[in-house]
Fold each of these.
Amino acid sequence: MALENILDQPLNPWMAGGGPDGDIVLSSRIRLARNFEAVPFPNRAKGSQLAAIVDQMRKSVNDLTNLDGHRYLFIEMEKLSPLERYVLVEKHIISPNLAQEAENRALIVRDDAAVSIMINEEDHLRIQCLAPGLNLNDALKCANKVDDAIEGRHDIAFSEQMGYLTACPTNLGTGLRASVMVHLPALVLSGQINRLVTAATQLGLAVRGIYGEGSEAVGNIFQISNQLTLGHGEQEIVENLYSVARQVVDHERSARQALLAESRDVLADRVWRAYGVLRYARSLSGQEALSLLSEVRLGIDLKIIDEVPPVIFNELLVTTRPNFLQKLAGQAELGPAERDRLRAQIIRQCLEDNKTRGGK
Amino acid sequence: MALENILDQPLNPWMAGGGPDGDIVLSSRIRLARNFEAVPFPNRAKGSQLAAIVDQMRKSVNDLTNLDGHRYLFIEMEKLSPLERYVLVEKHIISPNLAQEAENRALIVRDDAAVSIMINEEDHLRIQCLAPGLNLNDALKCANKVDDAIEGRHDIAFSEQMGYLTACPTNLGTGLRASVMVHLPALVLSGQINRLVTAATQLGLAVRGIYGEGSEAVGNIFQISNQLTLGHGEQEIVENLYSVARQVVDHERSARQALLAESRDVLADRVWRAYGVLRYARSLSGQEALSLLSEVRLGIDLKIIDEVPPVIFNELLVTTRPNFLQKLAGQAELGPAERDRLRAQIIRQCLEDNKTRGGK
C-alpha cells in the first residue's frame, strides 16, 4: 500500500476486521513514548540534532519489515502538503501536534496503517499500534515488538530509577498510553454517560472526544485512556484500562437492551429518521453528520436497520472530516457551505452504494 | 364506482387531472344551499318532515344521471358506520356537521365524487361541485345544472326580494359559497402569509385550514372562500374569488421563484430532508406528516425532487387522516401510537411504490 492509498482510502485496512466487542469498541491503541539517549528532547534540540534522528530512524524501516513481513513507508513531513498531513490526523495515523510543523519531522507507517512511528513530535519517537475492537493485549504485543526492533539498533534514554525518560513528566516510566475508542450512544441517550465519565476519572483514566485532548465527544464516540504511568507497570496499566473498558461495554450493552425493551418503537423511529436524513440531505455539518451516523450505527448494531453494513460508520467517520473532504475535492479550496454539500453528497453516495452491494 | 370504492380509495377520481394552476390550487368548490318550500329548516323540522325530504330526493337520482350520464349513489347516513361517515369528511365529500348525526340524513354522490348533495344538513339541500385546479366556472356551471335538475322536480324556497331562503342568514340570497383549496408553502416559509390573510379578509373573503371553519392550516393548505352572499350575484361572487385566487397564485409563484433564486441550496436540503424522513420514519403524527408532505410537494413542484409524482401529495393528504387510517386498519381500534405507526408505514409504502412506478 503506497502513501496515496493511505491518504485516499477512508478506511484503514486494520479497521475492516471488527475485532472483539467491535460493535462498541471501535479500536484499541497503545502508544509508547521513546527518546534517543544523550540528545535533547525535541523542544530543546537543535535542527541538526533532530535531522540526525530522522536519518537514524530511516535505518529502522528494514528492521521493521524483517519483524513482521509488512511493508513500512518512511515519510518526511516536509514532503507532504499541510492538507495531506491533516488527512493523516483525521485517519488517526499521526497527532495534530505532528501535523502542525513539518521541519525535521517524519513518520514511519505500516502498509495497513496499524503501526505508525511519529518522529520528533513531543518525544523523539512515538510508537503507535492499533487493533480493531477491544484488543489492548495484541496492540501492546505489537508495540513491544516494534520497540524491541528500535531499541536493538538505537540507544534509548532509560533510567533504572524512573524508567523511560520523556519530554513530559506525565509520560515518565513506561512511556505508555493505552486507549480505547468506544461508541456509547445508549449511555448518552439514557443520560448515564456523565456518571461513567466521573467514575472513570476517579480510577485515574481520562475520557475525551474522538480526536483526543480538547476535542468534543461528537458522534457519541469517546476515547478512554490511562492518565498515570510513573510507578505502574505496562501490564498493570493495560489490564486496568481493559477492565474498565469491559465494564463500559457491559453498561452500554445493558443500556441498549433497556432502550430496546422500554422504547423499541421510539428508538426505531429515531434511528430510521437519522438514516433518512443521511440518505437525502443536501447539506450536512460535520457535527450533525457524526450524530446521525452514530444513531444509524446504533440502529445497525441493534438489528433495526438492515439496509447497510456497520462498517459504513467507521468509513464515514473519516470520509466526512474537513481535510479528507478537501483532499477529495482536489485543488479548489472548499468554503464551509461547499464542504457541507460535499459531505452530504459523499454520505448519500456511500449509503446508496452499500445498500446496493449489501442489499438483501 | 360503488360506495366501497369511494370510501377505500384515497384519491377522488376528479383529483387526478391536476387542472389549471394545479401546482398551487388543489381544488375549486361551489356549494349551493337550497331548502324545500313550506317545510321548516332542518333544525326546526319534525323527523317525519325530514324523512319526507329524504324520500323526495331519492327520485332526483335518475334526473341527475340523465343530466350527465354519470352514476349517482343515494346513501342514507344511517346505513353508514360513524367511521365511514368520517372517512367521507376526510375526503371532503360531506361536512363534519352531516357526519355527526345520521338520523333522517342522506347523501347523493356522483361516481367520481365531484358532485355531492347533502340532505338535511343545516339546510335541506347542500349541493357541492368540485373541480381540480383553479376552475370555479366549471364548478359553478356544474352546480347550476344540478340545481336546475333538482328545481325541475321539487319546489325550492325562494323570495323575489331576498333570493334563496336558507337556515343561516349569511347564506341568504344566492345560497352560494365558492372556495378554493390552495397550497402556499412559499408564502408561509417567507412569512408573507399573514399579510395575505389580512388582505383577503378585507376583501370579504375567509381564509381557513384544510377542513373548513375552525380547522388549522396544517400542511400549508388554506381554504379561501366568500363570506358575503346577500346582495351579490353568483357570477360576481365567483369572479371576485377567482381574481383573489389568481393573485394568491401569482404571489405564491413569485415567492417560490424568490426562494429558488435566493436560497436554492437551503431549500433543496430542506425538501430532501423532509422526503428522507417520510421515506424512513417509523412514527408520524398527522400534523408532522402534513408539514413534511407539503415540503415534499413544494420540492416536486420546483423540480428539486424527481423521485415521485406530485399526485402522491393529494393522495397522502387523505390516506394519512385518522379515520381513513382506522378504516384501513379494519376492526381493531387504533390507539394514537398505533395510528402514527400505521401512518408512517403507509407513507413509506406509497413513496416506495411510486418511486418504483415513476422511477427514472
Amino acid sequence: MDITAQHRLFGGTLTFAKHDSAATRTPMALSVFLPEGEGPFPVLIWLSGLTCTASNFTEKAGAYKRAAELGLIIVAPDTSPRGADLQGHTVANDEAYDLGQGAGFYVNATQSPWAAHFQMESYIVTDLLQLIGAEWPADLSRVGISGHSMGGHGALTLAMNYSHLFKSVSAFAPIASPVHCPWGQKAMEAYLGTSHDAWEKYDAALRLAKGKALPFDEILVDQGLADPFLETQLMPHLLEQAAKVAGQKLTLRRHEGYDHSYYFIASFIDDHLDFHAQRLKA
Amino acid sequence: MDITAQHRLFGGTLTFAKHDSAATRTPMALSVFLPEGEGPFPVLIWLSGLTCTASNFTEKAGAYKRAAELGLIIVAPDTSPRGADLQGHTVANDEAYDLGQGAGFYVNATQSPWAAHFQMESYIVTDLLQLIGAEWPADLSRVGISGHSMGGHGALTLAMNYSHLFKSVSAFAPIASPVHCPWGQKAMEAYLGTSHDAWEKYDAALRLAKGKALPFDEILVDQGLADPFLETQLMPHLLEQAAKVAGQKLTLRRHEGYDHSYYFIASFIDDHLDFHAQRLKA
C-alpha cells in the first residue's frame, strides 16, 4: 500500500492510499478515516456515484465529525479501476461519464473489453476488505455499507448478495432498479451482455422482490424530491414496492427540495452514521 | 445578480451567484448560505486563501450544519476578480498561484496592471456587503469576518481597518505579517509598490502592534503545527507578540499534527461559528 496523503482531522487521521488489486489487476485508490483511540473499530464502506473518485465523499460529505464521535472507520474507495493499465481501452473507458472509468457499477464485468479490469464487486468484497483488515485496526465482523446514486445501488446489491459480510446497509438516492433505467441498462449490457438473467443479481429491487429473507432489521434510504434523476434513473418506489413484497423493513425518507448533490448527502449523513453505528456497535 | 446554482441543505439554502462589482469593474462570484426561518440573520464573511474560489470553503469546510443551528448567514466570496475583462493582463494574472487571479490579498492595488481591477478591499467592505444587505435577510449591524491563510490575513486586517463594520473576527492559519514573508512581500510589492508605508495597513501584526484600541473583546486564531507554511509564511507568533503589546486579547490555539488543509478547518470550524454567534447574537 502506498500512502499518497495523510491529514489529521477531528482527532483522527485521514489517509489517501493506493494498493494493487488482484481483482481489477490495477492499482486502486481509496480514502480511510481512522478515529482517535485504540480500536478495533467498526467500519462503514462508502460507495460513490458516477464520475466520482475517492475524494468526493471525503471532501464534501462532512461525515468525519460524527464518525469521530461514534468511533467509526469510514472507507471510501474509487468507483472504478483507472490508469495506464487501461490505456488499451481508452476510448471505451472515457467516451462517456456513465460507462468505464468512474462508472464501475460495482459489478464483475463478463464482456470484452471490460472483463479484463472491471471487477468492482470482487474488489470491494475481497481486496478492499482484506486491505482494511490488514492495515487498519478494523473489526471486519462489524462492517456496514452505504453509498450514493450508482454507489447506493452498489451498497444495496452488495449487502443483499454478501449479507454475511455486512451488518447494516443504507443509501442516498440509489439507482434502485438498474434494469429499469437508462444508466443501468447501458452499463449492464456493456459489462454483462444482453441476457437479463445476468443482470438480476445487480438489481436491488428485483433481488428484494424475490422475497429472500435478509438479515437486515431495517434499510435506510434518503431521497431528495428535487433530484433531477428521481423519475428517470433512480425510481425508489420500485424498491419500496419490492420491500413490501419481501416483508423487508425499508425506511424511505423523501425530502422536499433536496437535490442529487453532496449538499443533500451532507444534510443527512449524520443520520446514516447513527443508523450504522447503532447496528455495528450493538 | 445572477444565481448560478442553488441547493437545499440543512433546512436552508445555498446560493452560488455572480454580480457586477463597481470596485473591481468585473463580475464577482460568491456563495451564500441562508438558514431556515425569517431573519434578519447575522452574517459571517469567510475569506478564502490562495488559489481558492467561492467553492472551496463551501464544499469542504462542513460549516453549514452548525450555521443552520445557529441561524447564521455565511458568505464566501471569490479571492480575486476573474474573467474575460482581465484578458489584457492574462500573463500577469496567471503566471503564479500567489499573484493575480486567486490571489487578491484583500487589498486595493495601486500599481499597474493590478490597479484596474484588483480592488478586493473595497469590494468586500462595499459591494459585497451591499449585495448581501439587498438580496438576503441579513442584519448588517451584526457582521463577523473570518478566513484562512491569505483569507485569515484579509479577515484580520479588514476587521482592524473597518472595525465599525465587523463585530467579531477570527482566523485559521492566517498570514499574520505579510511584510515579513515571501507571499506577502511579493504581493504587496506588486499591488502596492515598493514603499513599505503603503504595506503597513495590510499587515495584521503591525496594525495590532500600533496599540490602537480595537473594539474586539477577543480574537480567535487556530493554527496547525504540521502546517508546512507555519514558519516561512504564517508566523502567528508575530501576531501573538503584537497582541501583547497592544493589550488585545488573542486566543491562539496551536494544534499538534494539523496541517494547512480544509480538513484542519473542518475540524475546528464549529468553534469559530460558536465564537462569532456568541458575539453577533449578544
Amino acid sequence: MKTPLLTLLCFIAASASAASLQSPDGAFLLEYQTDSEGVLTYKLGYKGEPVVDQSRLGFELRIEGEQHALNSGFQIVEVIENEFDETWQTVWGEETEIRNHYRERLVRLRQEGSGIELDLRFRLSDDGLGFRYEFPEQSNLRHFVVTDELSEFAMTGDHTAFWIPGDYDTQEYDYTESRLSAIAELFDSAYTENASQTAFSKTGVQTALMLKTDSGLYINLHEAALIDYPAMHLNLNPETLVFESWLTPNAVGDKAYLQAPAQTPWRTIIASDDARDILASRLTYNLNEPCKIEDTSWIRPMKYIGVWWEMITGKSSWAYTDAAVPIKLGETDYTQLPRSERHAANTEHVKTYIDFAAKHGFDGVLVEGWNVGWEDWFGHEKDYVFDFVTPYPDFDVAELSDYARQRDVELIMHHETSSSVRNYERHMDAAYAFMKQHGYNSVKSGYVGNILPKGEYHYSQWLVNHYQYALEKAAEYEIMVNAHEAVRPTGIARTYPNLVGNESARGTEYQAFGGSKVNHVTVLPFTRLIGGPMDYTPGIFEMDMSKLNPENQSHVNSTIANQLALYVVFYSPLHMAADLPENYDRFLDAFQFIKDVPLEWEKSVYLEAEPGRFVTTARQEKGSKDWYLGSVNGSEQRSVSLKLDFLDTGERYTATLYRDAADAHYLDNPQAYEIETIPVSSQSTLQLSVASGGGFAISIVADR
Amino acid sequence: MKTPLLTLLCFIAASASAASLQSPDGAFLLEYQTDSEGVLTYKLGYKGEPVVDQSRLGFELRIEGEQHALNSGFQIVEVIENEFDETWQTVWGEETEIRNHYRERLVRLRQEGSGIELDLRFRLSDDGLGFRYEFPEQSNLRHFVVTDELSEFAMTGDHTAFWIPGDYDTQEYDYTESRLSAIAELFDSAYTENASQTAFSKTGVQTALMLKTDSGLYINLHEAALIDYPAMHLNLNPETLVFESWLTPNAVGDKAYLQAPAQTPWRTIIASDDARDILASRLTYNLNEPCKIEDTSWIRPMKYIGVWWEMITGKSSWAYTDAAVPIKLGETDYTQLPRSERHAANTEHVKTYIDFAAKHGFDGVLVEGWNVGWEDWFGHEKDYVFDFVTPYPDFDVAELSDYARQRDVELIMHHETSSSVRNYERHMDAAYAFMKQHGYNSVKSGYVGNILPKGEYHYSQWLVNHYQYALEKAAEYEIMVNAHEAVRPTGIARTYPNLVGNESARGTEYQAFGGSKVNHVTVLPFTRLIGGPMDYTPGIFEMDMSKLNPENQSHVNSTIANQLALYVVFYSPLHMAADLPENYDRFLDAFQFIKDVPLEWEKSVYLEAEPGRFVTTARQEKGSKDWYLGSVNGSEQRSVSLKLDFLDTGERYTATLYRDAADAHYLDNPQAYEIETIPVSSQSTLQLSVASGGGFAISIVADR
C-alpha cells in the first residue's frame, strides 16, 4: 500500500506567515511561522496540549570563510504538502511489517539579503514529528561549514527527565531521573568515570531523552538517520527551559562540513499520553531510508554465548601474557613469552563454549582476546594497536572454525579498535576477508578509549562517517556488525540491517564494574532502544561477582527473573547469554527460557510501561502462534494483574511462568525464582508479584 | 668493507662528567657533559672553531597522564663507543656507492629520582654530526607522550641564514638571506600566502637550514630518518641566538606518542669551511637504515613530460566541466555535463604528449586532471573528494595505456588527495591496483590544502606516519612515489628507494604564480635537497607566462641555460621537462641537452658552491666515461674559469656548451643562449660568462 498524495501550495513572500498541519489521526498539531524579523519557529501540540512550545530553527554557518547567521530574515517562498502511507517489510524487528504513514510539509525558505535557500521538511505521523533541514542545490551555497545548529525544543514546564550527561564520547551512564531544573545541580554526580568522556555543559544531556510532564504527557526527543553529520546533544537553558541542539564538534570546533544539496538528520519528537505508545513508535525507523542491501538472506538474528563475562569480571584476561615487555605488532614473538593461565581465549577453553552452545542450541560463540595486542591495548594512544588477523599462539583459528562448523555453531569475530580508527580502516579489508575465510559472519567491534587522531570525538562527523564506512564495507563482505562504543543508533538499521546491534549505553558489563541502578532496564527501552537494538548482554544468573573473582565486590542489581525478562523487553536480533556456562548449569530450569525465547517476531504488544518503573512487553513469535512475555521492574516491589487478551481468541495455550519468588530481592535474594506451568487463553488474567529489581518471563505456547 | 669496532667504557655515576669524541679525520670535535644539576649538554667544533656552542638536550614528557621534565638530573651510567666504516651501493643517487664512516658514542643516562633511562647516540663522521635520543626498554617508561623536545643548537654568532618561515603545513617559500638577528623583522614579508600554512613563531624557521658564519664556516641543520615522529622546526631565541627544536603538534598540542623502545629521528649538523662539502655530504642518507626493499629492479629513474604546465599557467584546466553543479562522486553523471574546451587530460591531447615523449626518448608522461572530482577539489574540506580510479569521460585510460605501451612510454599516475588523507587511504589499495592493471608504475601524489581531519598538520606525527604508509604500501605494489606537499625528505629514500621524489619546497610552479627569487635554485641544493631529490620540474623555455595564458602576467626568473643546468645541479632520479612540447619545438637545439642528460650517475663532483650565489656540479654518467656539468647562477652576472681536471687524464672528450649569450638576462633576455662544441681534456680550462639568473650546461662526451 503506497498512496503518496501531493498538494502544492504557493505562498506570496510576506513579512510574517503562519501555517499548521495535523497528523493523520488528528492528535498532533504542528504550527510553524515566520515572524516580522523572518525568524522561523515551530510548535507542536498533542490532543490540545502543548508538547513543544514555540521554538526557533536555524544555523550558524561558515561560507567561504565567512560566518553567516542563517536564523532570521527567512521568507517562505513555497510550501509543498504531501501525504504518504506505506507498509514495509522488516528484515528483523519487533514486527514483520511497519506502517509508515505521515503528512509532510516541505517549507521552502529564502533568506533576505543572502538569498540563501533553506528547506524545512516536517513529517507528522500519529506517533510524533520528524523534521530536518535541507540545503537545496543553489549558487549561493555550495560547500559550507555548520558551526552551529540552532534547533530549539522549548519545554512547556519543569518536566521530569530521564537523562544522562551530554558527552561527546560516551553514553555509558546510569540515568538520572529529575526535574529539568535540577539537571545542573545533579550533573556532577551523574557524570561517572569512563575510559573516554567529554562533557560540554552542566545542563547538557543526550538523546534519546525521555520526558514526562506533570499532566502525564510522555515526550521523547532524539534524531533519526544520522549520516555524515555529528551526533546531536541537547543543552538546556535553565531559565527558559528551552533545549538547544548541541552538535559534537571536531578538533577545531567545527560541527559539520556539507555540500549542497545536503540535509541534516531528522530531529524527532515522539509523544503520547500513554507511555506504551513511545515503545510502539516506529517513527525513528520510518524516517530512515529503505533497505539498501538487495539480498538480505545472510542477515540472520543470532543468540550467542561468549568468552567475555569471565574477562569483564576479572576472572580471566584478554591478554596472552603478563610479562612486562613492550608489545610491537609484527616484532613481538609471543611464542617466546610466558603464557598467562588467565588467558581465556585459548583453543581448549573455547571448545568448551562451543560444546555448550551446540548442546543448548545457541547460534554463535563470541571470543574476545583471541588476537595479538591486548597487553597494552588501552589508554596509550597507540596507533598500531591491533592487526585483527593474527591470533595468539594458543588460539587455533582454523581448528576452532572447523570445530564450530561441525557443531553447527558460528564463531563471532571481535574487533576491538582501541579507538585507533585509522588503524582499523587500514586493516579492515584484510580483517573482513580473514573472517569470511574462517567462517565468521558477524563482528563485534569496539571503540574503547579516546579517538585517534586526538581532537576527534566518538560522536563527531568524522567518526559518524567512519562507523558508516565500517558498516557499508561489512555489507560488501556480507558481515553483520555489532558496534560497541560507536555513536548511538538512529534507525539506520532500516537502511543497513546488517547493523544488528550497538552498545552505546550502559550495558550489563557495568553490573560487574560496581553495578547499575536497579531501574536502569526500565529506562533503556524509552531512551537508548528508540534508535535501534542494543547488545545489552543479559542473562546473568550469578549476581555476586566475588564468586567469579574474589577481588571483584560488585553485585548485579537484578533478580534472575528480571534477567530472563530482558530477552523479551529489550528487542534485539542479537542476544547474548552472558554468564558463564557453569552458572547456567546450576539453574538449567531458568536457563530453559533463554533457550526457548525466539529472536524473530510477528508482532509486539506493550502491556505496561512507565519509565523508571516497569515495562511489560508481549511478542508473538514470527510464523507461530506462540507468545513470549517479559516484564522488568524498578526498585518498588509491585503486584501485577495481567490480562492475556492479546492472545488469539479460541486458542488454548500452555504458559510457563518464570517469576520472582515471594522473598526475592535484587540485592539479598536475587536467585529466588519460581517456575510454574499453567493453561491460559485470551480470557486469562495472571496475578503476579514482582520483586524489587525483579521481573518475570513467560512463554505462552499454543497447544498443538 | 665493514669494520665495526667496539669499545666499552664504564663510568662511575658522578655529579658531573665530561667527554669528547673526534671524527675519523680529526676535523670535528664533539664534547658532551653533565653539569652539577645533571643537565646534559653537547658542543661541536670544526678545525678548532666552534660550530655549535654548549647546547642542552632533553624532553618534556607526559607519562601516565603526568607531565615529567626529562632534562636534568641525568647521570651517565655507561658509554659505549663504536667505529663503523662501510660502503653501500645506491639504487639511484649521485654516485653508485657511498661510504658511511663514523665514530659513535652511545651515552646511557639515568635520571635521578625518576629512574628513567635515556640514551643519546652520537655519530660523528667527516662531514658532521648526527645524534638522536633513544628510549630503551624499561619498566619506568613504556608508553609516553612527547609534549616537547628540548634539543638546542646554540649558534656562536649572528650568522647569515638562508631560511624559510617555520610552518606546520608548507615549505613552499622563497628563501630569505639574513642575519639571524633579522629573522623576526623579516618574517612577515617572508611568510607569503599558501593554500595551507601555519606559522608558529616570528623566529621559527625550517630545516634543512643553511647558515654561514662570518669566518666562512658553512653549517647545515636538518634531521634524518623522520619515521613515526613529527617534523622538527627550529625556533630562534633572538637574545641568545640559540635554536630550539620545535616539533609539529597534533590537534591537541601533543607532539609524539611513543612506546619504548623508541628513538627520535637524527638531528644533523653538517659543517665545513668549504660550501662544496655541504653538497657532497651523505650524512643524511648514512643515518637512515639500509634498503628494506629486497628486489629493487622495478625502481627505475625516469625522465618525463606531462600534461601539467598548461594547467599551472592557467592555459588549461584540471576540471572536466565549468558547469556550476554540485559534484558528488558516484552520483554525478559527467556525461550529462558540458565538457570544458580547456580540459587538457583528454585522450587526443594526451596522445600528442605520448607522441612527443616517444619521439624524444622520454620515459614517461604525467597526466593530471584525468580523474573525476576536480571541479571542487580544493579548499572545501571535502572528505570524499576523489576516488583515484574513475577517469573523466574524455580520458580513455585503456586506450592511452595501450597507446603509450606501444610507443615504449609509461603513463605516470596522479593522485591528488586534497589532503583528505583518510579518503586516500580508503582508496589506496584499489588505486594502486588500478595503476598496475593499466601499466602505471609510478605515482605523483599531492596534499594540497588543509589536512582532514582538521587539527592535524602536514608535518605532524599522524601525517608523517601516513606518508610512510603510502610509501610502504606502494612498495608492495612495486610502485614509485613522488609525493608533493608531503613532509620534506630526510633521507628515507635510502631505506625505501621507491620514494623517487618529493616536492616539499617552492618548485617551478611558483614561476607561473608570480615568480621565484632569482637565486632560489642556488639555495635549494643547500637546503631542501639535503634530505632527498626534489621533483622541481625544470626545463621552462618560455618565460613569459602571458604567451600561454593572456591573464597570467608572471615571469620565469631564469634563463634557458639556467633551466638546462638544473638537470645536473639538482640531482633527481625523476626529472621532468615541464614546458609545453610546442615550446621545446621552438628551441630544439637547447632541448637536446634535456634529451641527452642522464639520470643515473657514477659519481659527482662539486666544482663551485656558494649558497645564494652559484652552484656548479659535474657528474659522470653511470657506466660511462661521459660527464655532464651544470651551473646555476644567482642575480650577479659573473665570469667563471672552470678547470676540467676531474676528467680522466689521457682521455679526449667533445664538450657541448649550452650557455647564456653575452646579452642574456633572466628578466629581459632569458632565451638568449649559445651552443658551442669543442674538444676538451682534463687539462682544459673553460672560461664562461654567466648571466644574472643564468647558468650553463655542458655535456662532455668521451671520444670513441
Amino acid sequence: MLFSETAPEAWASRYGSHPTQSLEGLDAFLRHRSVRRFAPVSISEDTVAGLMAAAQSASTSSNLQLWSAISVQEPSRRAAMAELCADQKQVKDAAWFFAFCADHYRLSMAAQKAGVDPKGLDYAEFGIMAIIDVALAAERFACAAEAQGYGICYIGALRNQPAEVERLLELPHGTFGAFGMCLGVPADSETARIKPRLKQSQVWFRETYDADVSVDEYELRMKPTYERRGMSTSWASHSGIRADGEHMTGRDVLLDYLHKQGFFLR
Amino acid sequence: MLFSETAPEAWASRYGSHPTQSLEGLDAFLRHRSVRRFAPVSISEDTVAGLMAAAQSASTSSNLQLWSAISVQEPSRRAAMAELCADQKQVKDAAWFFAFCADHYRLSMAAQKAGVDPKGLDYAEFGIMAIIDVALAAERFACAAEAQGYGICYIGALRNQPAEVERLLELPHGTFGAFGMCLGVPADSETARIKPRLKQSQVWFRETYDADVSVDEYELRMKPTYERRGMSTSWASHSGIRADGEHMTGRDVLLDYLHKQGFFLR
C-alpha cells in the first residue's frame, strides 16, 4: 500500500499538532488524499461490486435511494468524458470512472406504476435529498475503497457541461450528474500529501454557531502546500477568488440546467 | 458490539442472495442501519474529536471546506432541538447530536478579509458544493463511528423548521442546517436490521443510463420489513406517496428559506 500513515501521523498533517488521544481504528479514515496519478493496474468487477454494496449500505432518506452510478469504461466514451471534465488526466487514467447522479427518475417511474403522481419531486427539498443521498453513497464507497488501499478522486468538473454529460450518458429527465469519481491503484509516482485543514474548533461548534473566522494560523500551515505547487497565494485569496463569481468554469448556468431536469423548481 | 454481521451476511440482507466474491475488510461498511435506540452511555470528547478528524479528512471541493457541525448537548437546547425534529426520540436520547450545516459564511468572511467580493456564492453551484461537502464529511464521520461499534442516525427532519433551527443555533447568513446526526452506543433493545436495497444492477449502470425500473423483485424482499412494522404497503406506494407533494412536513417552503440564506439564487 502506497500510503500508510497512521492516524496520529495523519492528524499531525491535518492539524499541525499531535493528538493527545488514541485514534485506534481511524487510520484509513484520516489518511485520505485525492489521487490523480494511477498505476496501469485494473480492479476487478467483483471488487467494485463490493464497494458498490458499501455505497448502497449508506443511509438514504426514507429508503428512497435517490441516486445512481454509471461506470464509464469504454475507451472512447471515457476519453469524451475526460474532455468534458476539464481534460483532467486522472479521469482518463483511472481503472474505473463513475458518474454519480442525483436520481428522481426511478422513484418517479415506481410511483406512477403504483398510481401516485410524483409531482412533489420538483421541490428544492427533493433536490437536496437526492444530492445528500448520492454524496453519502459515494463517500461510503470512497471510505471502503481507501480502507482496501485504493485511491479515489472526486470530479466536480462533471458539472461543467451537464447537458453534454447528459447526452454522453443518456441521462433521463429527473437525473443529473452530481460529480464524478476516479478509482484506481495509486501510482508509485503519486506524491499527494495529506492536506492541512482548518482547526477543528473552526468547523465544530458547541451549542451555537461561533465561527472563528481568523485563518492566520491556517495560512501558516497551508503555506508549504501552495509553495510546493509554485503558488504564492493564501487560502483566503485562493479560495475567495473561487467565490467571486468570475471563475465558474461554466457552472454559472447550472440552475437553468437543474430546472430543465426538474430540480429546484419550487 | 451489538451488531456483528459479516460482510457476506450483510450482503445477503441487502440483496437477498449470497455474494460470490470475497468482501474482506468491508464488514463495517456493509452492516449500517440507522440506530434509534441508544444506551444511556456517554462517548468522550476525545472520541468525537477523532471522528471529527475523519469528517475533516473527507474530500472537499477545492479545499473550500463549506460545512460546519454544531453539537447540541445542553439538555434544554437538546430538548428544543428534538421538538424541532418531529419529536424523534433518538434526537433526545443520543449521546451526541450534531447539526451538520452547509456553510458559506466562513469562506465569505475570509474572502472579504483578503479583499475579494464573494458574490458568486449565491449561484446554485455553490449551494451544491456546500451540500456535497457537508454530506461527504458526515458520511466519513458515520463510517468511522460505525467501524468503532457506535450507531448513528441521520435526521432529515432538521429541515422541517429551518428558521427555528437557525434561531436555536444562532446560524448566520450563508449557512443552513442540512441534516442532523445522532451518535451513541446502540441499546441492547435495538432491533434495527440491515435493510434490503434495490438490486445492484438497478443503481449501477454500465456506460449509459439504463434504469431497470421494475421493482417487483424488490417488493418481495421489502415485504417482511413492512410487515414487521405492521404496514401493508409496498416500496413503490410508500415511496411514491412521499413524492406526491402533499407530505412535505413543512419542507415545501424550503426554497424560500434557502433564498433568504443566500443559496440557490441564480
